[in-house]
Amino acid sequence: QVQLVESGGGLVQPGGSLRLSCAASGSIFNIYAVHWYRQAPGKQRDWVATISTGGMANYADSVKGRFTISRDSVKSTGYLQMNSLKPEDTAVYYCRLSQFWGQGTQVTVSS
Question: Which run of H or E residues covers position 37?
Fold first, then answer.
């Protein structure tokens, strides 16, 4: 059984930064790409970013240039560095590896 545990969310002012982590148990981390999604209240879950096993990253247009996705194969952990945060970034953020999802971590951007 694979478990994904997100952490690093919280309350931050506009323009601030947060780094989310997604720690994976089991031995699948190096096999699959890491994906981040987010879901704002009353909205659908949207894709944010993906990093392949080879380190190639792709981003949604709404976060390009502000967010950076990365992965540490030794620690079996994926990261999402979020800079220049805006109120519209407020959402629950989820990571995914293959069919496995984390429980989500709340990010709130507000003054």
Answer: strand 34-39
Give 88-107 pLDDT, tens digit per residue.
999 999 999 999 999 999 99
Q: Are 95 and 35 in contact (CB under 8 A)?
A: yes
Q: Cα 109 to the chain's mean position, in Å? A: 15
Whole-number average pLDDT of the chain: 96
Q: Which residues pair with 96 in a beta bridge?
A: 35, 101
- What's the DSSP call for residue 100? E
What are the phi and psi torsion angles at 15 (to 5°)?
Answer: 90, -10
Token pair listed for 55: 């380190």
**Contact yes or no for 33/52 (Cβ under 8 A):** yes
